[in-house]
Specification:
Arginase, Chain A; 11 helices; about 30% helix; globular
């Protein structure tokens, strides 16, 4: 089956304002009639599937509204090598849709093309994950969400339990999971304890609001990111039936999207839970369009300093802890001033985990080490490698 058999092409007569676009606007810079994967850095598409949504019915129909705003934006400094493949239509069953999404993303990954897509309901994250299992690649997932999806694993998959399904999936290729922006009153404390027991990490909304930069090394370590619009506060993204009064603002949502684009490691990016049935004068669609723009801007600003890097190009810092009984090695890239720390492992350790041993961090982790303390992110990764 051809990749393009999964898609319904974009119908420009359904995109508001398309006929008025000027040459420099994105709608006239991306390919809307692709017949090959080759030649593109990024591919955009939407997934018309919401049967896994528990409380946000209507979230599969907003893509053209987002396109109308996205196409009106102007490209940045770099020429776009991007196509809009259109819509993966709802399959006869949810499983059929999952199969299509998994196959599409898998083919794009194999060709080093980054899929940027709009759900649909968040259970589609499971289909995204399954594409990596096909590639037999261990991965890190970052979820930008106000809550976790650790509902009852024995129920059919839906947007409130999909992460439980990922955890129990065999073979399991998930190395690490990070949540950004959870709101304590929306999560069960038992779920927090479970994440801690698995040495996964979660970061409260208040932590991000205090300093959005704490998210950068976490996202830099991700292979794929799912961004639920429920993580954005209702005043900034009201078109969502499960949005909260609190959350990220529009600028923060765009900054996190840019961090995702900048990550040399990241290979797919999904945005979920936009519900066009809630009339908001296009505010949420407009924000999503700008989030995609910032992802692209970040992508074309990649420094190429990880993971395909030569350690000799780094500035190396060695810190002795516990009176010299433990040594932590940090590396700073002269290209981007970003930091990594080396996580040691047994010589017989499986090669498939090798790409996780240079762990993104920041200057504060180095400062922590100089105070004879082990940085938390180093400890969590080390525990998984034992």
């Amino acid at each position: 089956m051809s990749l393009f058999d999964y898609f319904q092409k974009v119908e420009t007569d359904k995109i508001e304002g398309f006929q008025f676009l000027t040459e420099g606007q994105i709608g006239n810079q991306i390919d809307l009639n692709p017949n090959s994967i080759e030649g593109y850095d990024i591919v955009f598409f939407d997934i018309e599937e919401e049967r896994g949504s528990i409380r946000n019915n209507g979230c599969s129909k907003g893509a053209n509204q987002v396109r109308s705003y996205f196409y009106q934006l102007y490209q940045g400094l770099n020429p776009l090598k991007m196509a809009d493949f259109g819509t993966i239509c709802q399959g006869e069953s949810v499983t059929d849709t999952y199969f299509a999404v998994t196959d599409v993303i898998s083919q794009l990954l194999r060709n080093n093309v980054i899929p940027v897509f709009l759900g649909g309901s968040q259970d589609l994250v499971y289909a995204n994950y399954m594409a990596y299992t096909k590639e037999e690649q261990t991965v890190n997932l970052v979820s930008i969400d106000s809550k976790f999806a650790l509902g009852k694993a024995d129920e059919p998959i839906h947007d409130l339990n999909y992460f439980s399904k990922i955890i129990i999936q065999q073979p399991n290729v998930l190395f690490n999971y990070s949540n950004l922006g959870y709101q304590t009153y929306l999560v069960d404390q038992a779920e927090l304890h479970l994440l801690e027991d698995l040495f996964f990490d979660s970061h409260r909304l208040g932590e991000l609001k205090a300093d959005i930069k704490v998210a950068e090394p976490i996202i830099r370590n991700a292979d794929f990111v799912n961004f639920s619009m429920s993580a954005v506060a209702q005043p900034y993204a009201p078109a969502n039936k499960v949005t909260s009064a609190n959350g990220l603002n529009g600028e923060q949502a765009c900054q996190l999207s840019r961090y995702a684009g900048m990550s040399d490691k990241l290979s797919s990016f999904g945005i979920y839970d936009f519900n066009p049935t809630i009339f908001d004068h296009g505010q949420t669609a407009n924000l999503i369009a700008q989030m995609i723009w910032y992802f692209i801007d970040g992508f074309y600003g990649r420094k190429g300093d990880f993971p395909a890097c030569n350690k000799k190009e780094y500035v190396k810092y060695t810190v002795n802890l516990e009176e010299g009984e433990r040594e932590l090695v940090f590396y700073k890239s002269p290209k981007s001033d970003r930091w990594w720390m080396n996580v040691p492992y047994h010589s017989s350790f499986m090669k498939k985990y090798e790409r996780h041993l240079m762990l993104p961090c920041d200057y504060n982790d180095y400062v922590t080490a100089t105070k004879n303390e082990i940085p938390e992110r180093w400890f969590q990764t080390f525990q998984k490698l034992k």
